[in-house]
Design brief:
Blueprint: E1 9-20, E2 23-35, E3 40-44, H1 51-58, E4 66-71, E5 74-75, H2 81-89, E6 91-94, H3 106-116, H4 121-135, H5 150-162, E7 168-172, H6 180-197, E8 200-205, E9 217-222, E10 225-231, H7 232-237, H8 242-251, H9 258-267, E11 271-276, H10 284-288, E12 294-305, E13 308-318, H11 322-331, E14 336-340, E15 345-350
Parallel strand pairs: 3-8, 3-9, 6-7, 7-8
Antiparallel strand pairs: 1-2, 1-4, 4-5, 9-10, 11-13, 11-14, 12-13, 14-15
């Protein structure tokens, strides 16, 4: 993927406040963020965290109250309306609810940015067909949005976002209205667009599954602020901020719930330990080799983040050499948390 010396998007201590009468809502609060050219960046958080406002600041649909915003080397806060329109033409937008024109055909919807750009009709037709081929619905060029499924409508949205060959695509909750299988197809298209066209993609979502296999880095927003920033694997596997920990665990639980623990203790009298997956997995055979220890996997929660395993295994372990086996796992880089036994339960002690 192409990378440049300077970031394609740079936010420097940006704040946006909405005022209604005597009330003020700080939607974006002193946010600094750099996004490199050719990167797929995720911005995640609960609804109301400020993610969509951040998008509207990047494409200059909203004006920041303070701070600096640079996009493709241009100071967004200093541009006049004509220059802002030129900047927006280089930014493709994909929306949650598709925002298609119901009275226009699929091909006309896709070509619309080229109409605004005053491109010749022959070019508009050819380019729209090319993008419909790319998203896999060239056969739908002459139909109207009402005749399409949700997934097909979003494919039209992606084709429209790419038709003017933008350098940046902003996807604002692009998969939230779709079923999981269709959402996966849409995310695959965004990955292909990034790989084949070198377009920088910013994915705004509250759905962690939308970023775990797509984004190289992720920023976590809460109450208008970025509370954590790092590689997707690091943020998901070892979140530092308590708000991030709560958010990640709602979608990618890395420990059994209290109800699950109670059931496991009722069924398994031995010592329960939670072992975190390392990027290379867990070598239970190696950890127990030559030892007087009995170990059974009784529960597991796993996912894949950035092509690497993420999650935990809950083990029931007993025998005089159990502690040695657990130490071997720790030495191999696995996290080990002790939940005790049914007779002597623990809340989760990190060993």
């Amino acid at each position: 993927m192409p990378h440049h010396d300077s970031p394609v998007i740079h936010l420097d201590h940006v704040t946006k406040v909405y005022r209604t009468g005597r009330t003020a809502l700080t939607a974006v609060d002193d946010v600094s963020l750099e996004i490199e050219a050719g990167e797929i960046m995720g911005v995640i958080g609960y609804s109301g965290a400020g993610k969509s406002t951040l998008v509207r600041l990047i494409n200059a649909l909203e004006k920041a109250d303070s701070g600096g915003i640079t996009v493709n080397g241009h100071d967004v806060t200093a541009l006049g309306e004509r220059d802002l329109n030129a900047l927006r033409a280089d930014i493709g937008m994909i929306f949650q609810h598709f925002n298609l024109f119901s009275a226009k055909t699929v091909a006309a919807n896709v070509a619309y940015p080229l109409v605004l750009a005053r491109r010749p009709k022959a070019e508009r037709i050819a380019r729209a067909h090319e993008m419909l081929e790319f998203v896999g619905i060239a056969d739908k060029a002459g139909v109207y949005p009402a005749q399409l499924s949700g997934g097909q409508k979003q494919r039209v949205g992606i084709a429209r976002a790419l038709v003017a060959s933008p350098s940046i695509v902003l996807a604002d909750e692009a998969t939230s209205a779709l079923d999981p299988e269709t959402a996966t197809d849409v995310l695959d298209l965004l990955r292909r667009a990034n790989q084949e066209f070198g377009v920088t993609v910013v994915v705004i979502t509250h759905n962690l599954s939308a970023v775990q296999g797509l984004c190289g880095r992720v920023a976590v927003m809460d109450a208008g602020r970025i509370v954590e920033l790092g590689t997707t694997y690091d943020v998901f596997s070892a979140p530092r901020d308590p708000k991030t920990q709560r958010f990640v665990r709602t979608a990618l639980p890395d420990q059994p719930s209290a109800q699950t623990l109670a059931r496991l203790r009722a069924d398994h009298p031995g010592r329960l330990v939670l072992v975190g997956l390392t990027p290379s997995g867990i070598d239970l055979a190696g950890a127990t080799a030559g030892l007087d220890v009995r170990t059974s996997i009784i529960f597991g929660q796993m996912a894949e983040v950035e092509g690497r395993p993420f999650g935990t295994l809950t083990l029931e372990t007993s025998g005089p050499d159990a502690e040695v086996a657990l130490e071997r796992l720790r030495q191999a880089g696995a996290s080990v948390t002790d939940y005790g036994t049914a007779q002597t339960p623990l809340d989760g002690v990190r060993l």
